[in-house]
Amino acid sequence: MKKLWKQKPWLIALVAVALFFVLAGLTSGTRKASTAENLFAAAAQPAQGFVGRVTDAVSDFFLRVFSPNALGAENAQLRARAEEAERKALLYEAVARENARLSELLDYTSPYANMRFIAASVTARSANAFVDTLTIRAGSQQGVRERMAVVCENGLVGRVVEVGLSWSKVRTIQNENMRIPVQIERTRDEAMLGGLVYHQGLFLGFQLDFLPEDADLRVGDVILTSGEGDSFPKGLVVGTVISVTQENGVHLATVSSRVDFIRLEEVLVVREVEEPNP
Amino acid sequence: MRRVTRALLLLCCVFFDTAVLARINLWGIAPSLVFALVCAYTLTDSPQLGLLCAAAGGLMVDLLCNTAIGLTPALYMLALLALAALAKRRFFKPFFLFLTVSALFFAMQALLAAGHSLLGQVRPYGRVLLLVQAPSALLTGGVSAWFYKVIKKRNEKKQTYEN
Hints:
The complex is a heterodimer.
Chain A (H helix, E strand, L loop, with lengths): L1 H6 L1 H19 L3 E2 L2 H32 L1 H39 L8 E11 L7 E4 L12 E4 L2 E9 L4 E5 L6 E6 L5 E10 L2 E8 L12 E4 L11 E11 L2 E7 L9 E7 L6
Parallel strand pairs in A: 1-5
Antiparallel strand pairs in A: 2-3, 2-13, 3-6, 4-5, 4-13, 5-6, 7-8, 7-10, 8-9, 9-12, 10-11, 11-12
Chain B lengths: L1 H19 L12 H12 L2 H19 L5 H17 L6 H25 L6 H38 L1
Helix pairs in contact in B: 1-2, 1-3, 2-3, 2-4, 2-6, 3-4, 4-5, 5-6
């Protein structure tokens, strides 16, 4: 074997290439991580986390030095949002109390009641422009399972596709194969989100398909997951409608997500808790 | 000692690619340090070493951040086989290496894009290839030529010292 490797490396290399392609085919779906993957990730994660933190610190420093105006504007925007959030929080407390009272009267169970979240930091991103995968620092030990939804403060991020002991890989909703049953928050009309919309090569958002003919869709409408099928839990924010057109009676809408997939640092894995049977 | 240095350098490149360049880049344009390094190894040391490092480096990249494990090392190894075949013609200078590695990296990305298009995905791959992958390929070629120069210099220094 050693002799063959020295004399005809291309032969062994071609066999290895074929085996790698087979391996890629076998590992492309949703699955649990193997022991070898877990061992490698456990060894690499501390270093990767450290490199990630240093990178964030360096990029923040350069951002502060080279674009103080942008930071100032962001600061003002954040201050305004904080003030608005405070006002909303006061209103929310009263509404929440009223909601709890009315829900009790109607014997209604909220879709959020059985949701728990697992916080995780993003440790790596796919280095390839054609793949949309994030690696997060939470795995089966923290309660993460395959196909769990992943969100951040700005909305839906994606779905867990591979779970290791202390890490998981998340396929983001920017993947073309992702189809998400959704609901328009204002009208409760249901539709399917999927397919990416580009304009002159720039990513605009997601396409909204299968809208009812009489759907009253407006720019600014909030889109939530509908919980249909075995996809995502109900009620997760996906994005807002940024454009609506109608062609031959068919609605064409584009939904924009507020999630910054490139700068994402922390995410929450949604863990649905089974209600104990009474 | 030399093996440990090589392995450490490869590991550094893997971490840099997956944790640093995936965060800090301009519109997605970033070189692939792992690919640049294995191309340089193929020419400064031997195709066998390049192929071995390509398999290990590509596998590590896939394990750290991709879901289809094996695709990156397979593509890296195919590109290195082409590079090794070209290197036999002995016209290699850093400038040719820059051009060849850029072309190979671009071809690899085009292959990936073609694969995705065949699977029925709808991104404007032509535009992504032109605006993101072409500059990334040039950067990768440049880094590879620099790696080649540095490693060759070090090898020559070591040989002089040993003699």
